[in-house]
């Protein structure tokens, strides 16, 4: 996987901002208003330093000020010495106000981060779930997992929130600089040029390295997820082959390069601060020397105190501007990945939710001139298939691996769209509007049964909310799948947890749970894709007999390599290289 091409960072951030919606943007406006209040509080706290220090060193100067005389009269102050207590309390109140607003701002930022994180992660996961089966077949799950977890979190923290913090720091820096200009023009300009110029220079020097690290992070995050998935997913083979060192070394190599890139960006984002703190301290010392020579010591002290406090507040603000800038650039490729996902329209299936009613199925399924290829400019997997399946029939499909059997049934189930041709049910062509209603008729039992880390009852009634599970129907389905006797011997019965991916069950037990799941759905069409391959002959015969005992209205489609599975089929189709080459009765099939 190659690093991603250069993108427009601000366009990607605007995409995320636009997607958040009107309500979230209103909340951002309120948050920005709180930031402005925080700026005002900081300016007040800095400005309060001058009268406070003046009251400590030269109270007569303040007391004799004609502009402040009405204030002293209102406070009933008659002597210069009486100024110290109210000005001390005023300075503390200003600092308390500034601290309170900062805490409120932190809390508001945290709440906003939670809201955005929930919205973006949830919407992205929903988008992935509503993608077509063909999309999932062509995309690596580790990329999707990394996108929905790590990358969305990084995009929130390094795009929207950092942009907000950057704006806040810019406004705060402007307020501090204006306050310093009011105190002393030359000193303020010197402070801004030295500290601000230092950060501009640092940004220019590290920008390319930060963007390079961004591409590395974007590429390695899904690779790390993929390595974990493959190691744990194939743990039986890993243990049997003693290949733990291989996976461990691979993961260590990936995670080292990933952490190195993240750490480099963190280092480059933080390194200017200690350097410019040293510059700032040296500058304050030189300013103190210069002010001492320009004015009397007592008059210079309040100005110096205000400038020192202003510089102390300005440096973190400038650091925040630089850090936000470096964070956005350091996650530029990650932001691009997330923004591109939201730039695409919601999958069309999202606009046609599952219907409470099923598509009427009374006569037959027609596949008309159906061809399919998984990608453009690739060979056809199926070629000009014409097939009619009457309702209530038992139809088998055989053929060599790669002959197109599973693909044919995937199209019949509406999981894949034909490249050309049509899927027609009782004369109605299946399209985006009717696909959900058609799929509501179908239960699918694959060879590899997916089981969630939940109870047996939840796995049989897969996808049904716990409170809506029909437990009588669960038990009936388990009986039909020849698994009820085993379940009912367990201490917790149907509430027994199966472990991750059904690890606590044998292969045959997992397949019978999958078959029970199909029976629970009470579908009109059941598709078995090598679904009985893990069953012994006796259990398979019992399951097949159960299928035969069900309603004659039930349509059963079976893919099998074991011919005994097809003995009750009314017709068996043989496929070769994507074409149906013959149809025959089971009795006529040659092994």
Describe the SSE topology.
Blueprint (H helix, E strand, L loop, with lengths): L8 H11 L1 H27 L1 H9 L1 H5 L5 H6 L9 H46 L3 H6 L2 H43 L1 H49 L1 H7 L2 H27 L1 H23 L2 H34 L1 H12 L20 E9 L9 E9 L3 E6 L5 H8 L7 E6 L2 E2 L5 H5 L2 E4 L10 H5 L10 H10 L3 H4 L19 H15 L3 E5 L7 H13 L5 E5 L11 E6 L2 E6 L7
Parallel strand pairs: 3-8, 3-9, 6-7, 7-8
Antiparallel strand pairs: 1-2, 1-4, 4-5, 9-10
Helix pairs in contact: 1-14, 2-6, 2-8, 3-6, 3-13, 6-8, 8-9, 8-13, 8-14, 9-11, 9-12, 9-13, 9-14, 11-13, 12-13, 18-20
Describe the structure.
The protein has a six-stranded mixed β-sheet, sandwiched between helices. A four-stranded antiparallel β-sheet has the order 2-1-4-5, covered by helices on one side. 62% of the residues lie in helices and 10% in strands. With 591 residues, it is α/β, with parallel strands linked by helices. It is built from 21 helices and ten strands. The longest helix has 49 residues, at 185-233. It folds into two domains: 9-21 and 116-345, ABC transporter type 1, transmembrane domain (ABC transporter transmembrane region fold, Up-down Bundle); 364-588, Rossmann fold (3-Layer(aba) Sandwich), CATH 3.40.50.300. It has helices at 9-19, 21-47, 49-57, 59-63, 69-74, 84-129, 133-138, 141-183, 185-233, 235-241, 244-270, 272-294, 297-330, 332-343, 405-412, 435-439, 456-460, 471-480, 484-487, 507-521, 537-549; strands spanning 364-372, 382-390, 394-399, 420-425, 428-429, 442-445, 525-529, 555-559, 571-576, 579-584. The model is unreliable at 1-6 (pLDDT under 50). The relative contact order is 0.09.
